[in-house]
Write a structure and sequence with these properties.
Blueprint lengths: L1 H20 L4 H9 L3 E2 L9 E3 L1 H9 L3 H15 L3 E7 L3 E6 L1 H14 L13 E5 L11 H19 L3 E8 L4 H16 L14 H14 L30 H7 L2 H22 L6 E4 L8 H11 L3 E4 L2 E4 L10 E4 L7 H14 L4 E7 L5 H12 L6 E6 L2 E5 L2 E3 L11 H8 L1 H9 L7 E4 H6 L5 H24 L20 H10 L11 H23 L3 H20 L3 E2 L2 E2 L1 H21 L8
Helix pairs in contact: 1-2, 3-4, 5-19, 6-15, 6-19, 7-8, 7-9, 7-10, 8-10, 12-13, 14-15, 17-20, 17-21, 19-20, 19-21, 20-21
The structure holds one RNA strand of 77 nucleotides.
RNA sequence: GCGCCUGUAGCUCAGUUGGAUAGAGCGGUGGUCUACGAAACCAAUGGUCGGAGGUUCGAAUCCUCUCAGGCGCGCCA
């Protein structure tokens, strides 16, 4: 983390300087020093890095910024080996250039760290949980869930790369009224398949979806040789006894005929498996699938209520039990137990948070859609009331995805059935493009998803631009292998060692090339080569910044820039020129591949050898 | 009515906790392949940062007001 380290050093050195020379108290000095930035200027003429230190310090030191800038500049030139030169620009910026030697020397570290290049230990192994997607198990994932899946997984990868101990968790709402309704729908159609006319629940889930689940259940309990079904979920096992019945069974009758709870549990399992398959097909895998119902096992609910009563954070009013949310920063108090005695969804939220704390997580990340932003205060209130530092409960509110077709926004409505399913999107656009697209913007930006564009112009997707860079490198490696095998490759064997035997597996070949060679001082001449090396050097800072900002799109953006530099380099400089291999460039290209692969992995996007 | 988010090039978006001449991609325009893959490269074009005030050395960024859009304000989940 070059920038991060230099900024820290700059601040430290200035602080030391000020303590001796100025009469200011330490607190206000610290505040001032915190305002010092060290950034990459937009304009190349202003050097590789620039700082506003002199401008920030001018009011404290009561000296003209230009004068201060000169002093700092002299200090940087004499004390920093990373800096090749510096200059001062009005009104008081200090610009400096990173030393070429330093950049080239840095390359060795990339080869040594390889897959770990970009990682840091900022998280200090803190146990952190990211909860995301958590869509109800009563339907398939739609296009909107795709954004949370991509965002949550990439963000988890970023946390992991910053040294956090990350758990990706999916919360399954299998307890409340929605799950009950789903179970009833299942039971209703299940009975039909045994000849009973049943009334399908009013405002039930789409019948074709429920039927597909029932069909799967029947498939599982099919008896051999066409003997029908086991009917394991019937309360009266004499299957077929309904055949003469002409009466429609009402919901309450269904209850007497089918074990609704059992078939519901099985149905939800089936739905969860389907969801998991969808997510896996976009490279998202959860560490934990947490069932809401498990919170209520072993009298968990009763125990929690008792505990909350004892701590005086719930109270009774209007036959219901209320949580004193307002006292902990929420807008109003929230019901925990309805007047009918049923726990609310909020009751689960409380227990779930306590459960998370009990599992040792020090930091909780919730990724929610903008339609849930009212949750933030509620969750913080729970934290505050139960003793979990609310600062460690982070709710990331992602703006919603709007479907656009022919330039017009499409209202997504589950009832109208014009919901676009994630599975369909993945099939049409491909996982890589979907993953890249969904993290390409800040989560804070409402996203317009243009279906026509995604389908037709998927070749123009920036993800292919990046992957193409990777494929080109793989191709260079292959060309080197072929040329070497044919004995036609001309190269300096003091500079580069090539393996005697080449594996068929690209990764093995690559590992061999990296481990058998030294990257201490590759011969790089042109500005583009050094520029590319400089870009590689900045990668760890990007991983760190993406973590601090919780923004995966910074990785997307970096990848795009890196690919751009590479393509330019590739066009203007030949690695293999008429059978003559330029070893310095070849080494550089190998290192570019490491960074491309590492960054793509964070985004869950493939790094293809061919396209 | 109250709260959260957004408004930057024709379109989709960046703009690094206030920094220097506001940047990319796509679309459109004009160029580049007997040379490691042209899914690439180069050039030119494109802007009243929704609007109005204010804060200061300096504002797309912070404050106030205002206009427009999205979302949320249940003993639903």
């Amino acid at each position: 983390m070059l920038i991060q380290n230099l900024r820290k050093r700059l601040s430290d050195e200035i602080l030391l300087l000020l303590k001796n020379s100025s009469g200011e108290n330490e607190g206000s000095l610290n505040d001032k020093v915190m305002q010092i930035t060290l950034t990459i200027p937009k304009n190349r003429d202003f050097g590789d890095l620039c700082t506003n230190a002199a401008l920030v310090l001018a009011p404290v030191l009561k000296k003209p910024p230009l004068k201060i800038a000169e002093d700092i500049k002299r200090h940087i030139i004499s004390a920093w080996p990373e800096a090749a030169g510096a200059n001062v620009a009005a009104p008081g910026f200090i610009n400096f250039f990173i030393s070429r030697d330093y950049i080239i020397k840095n390359l060795e570290g990339i080869a040594i760290k390889k897959d770990d290049y970009g990682r840091n230990e900022h998280g200090a192994n803190t146990k952190l949980q990211v909860e995301f997607v958590s869509a109800n198990p009563t339907g398939s994932l739609h296009i909107g869930h795709g954004r949370w899946a991509a965002l949550g997984d990439s963000l988890s990868n970023i946390f992991a790369s910053n040294g956090f101990d990350v758990c990706r968790e999916y919360y399954i709402n299998d307890f409340g009224s929605q799950a009950a309704k789903f179970s009833l729908c299942l039971a209703s159609l299940y009975l039909r398949s045994f000849g009973q006319n049943t009334q399908y629940p009013e405002d039930g889930y789409p019948e074709d979806l429920v039927k597909s689940v029932v069909d799967q259940i029947l498939q599982e309990e099919k008896l051999p040789e066409g003997a029908g079904f086991k009917g394991s979920y019937l309360k009266n096992k004499s299957a077929g006894s309904f055949k003469t019945s002409s009466e429609y069974a009402r919901p309450e009758l269904i209850d007497s005929m089918v074990d609704i709870g059992a078939i519901g549990r099985r149905g939800i399992e089936i739905m969860i498996n389907r969801i998991a398959v969808t997510l896996k097909s976009m490279n998202v895998q959860f560490d934990e699938w947490f069932y809401e119902s498990s919170l209520y096992k072993n009298a968990g609910f009763e125990k929690t209520i008792k505990q909350l009563e004892k701590e005086n954070i719930i109270y009774a009013k209007d036959d219901a039990i209320w949580f004193k949310a307002a006292q902990y920063g929420d807008e109003k108090d929230r019901v925990v137990i309805r007047s009918g005695g049923e726990p609310t969804y909020f009751a689960s939220d409380i227990m779930y948070l306590i459960n998370k704390a009990g599992r040792g997580f020090k930091r909780l990340i919730y990724i929610l859609g903008a339609d849930h932003h009212g949750y933030i205060k509620r969750l913080h209130a729970i934290g505050k009331a139960t003793g979990f530092n609310e600062r460690n409960i982070e709710v990331i509110i992602g703006q919603l995805v709007r479907l656009v077709q022919k330039g017009q926004p499409v209202k997504m409505s589950k009832r109208k059935g014009n919901v676009y399913m994630l599975d369909d999107l993945l099939k049409e656009v491909g996982s890589d493009a979907v993953r890249y697209f969904f993290t390409a913007n800040s989560f804070n930006t409402p996203m317009d998803f243009d279906l026509d564009l995604a389908k037709q112009k998927s070749n123009k997707n920036p993800v292919y631009y990046i992957q193409y860079a990777h494929a080109r490198i793989a191709n260079i490696i292959d060309k080197v292998r072929q040329g070497f095998a044919a004995g036609e490759l001309d190269f300096d064997s003091n500079e580069l060692r090539l393996p005697d035997k080449w594996s068929d597996n690209f990764e093995d070949v690559f590992t061999a090339l990296i481990s058998e060679n030294t990257f201490k001082n590759p011969n790089l001449k042109s500005e583009q080569e050094v520029g590319l090396a400089k870009m590689l050097m900045l990668y760890p800072d990007v991983v760190y910044d993406a973590c601090i900002c919780r923004e995966p799109y910074m990785i997307n953006q970096y990848l795009y820039r890196l690919a751009g530099l590479f393509h330019y380099f590739y066009k203007h400089h030949r690695v293999i020129d008429a059978k003559k291999l330029n070893t310095g460039r070849f080494k550089l290209v190998l290192l570019v591949r490491i960074v491309l692969a590492n960054a793509l992995k964070i985004l869950g996007v493939g790094a293809p050898e061919r396209m």
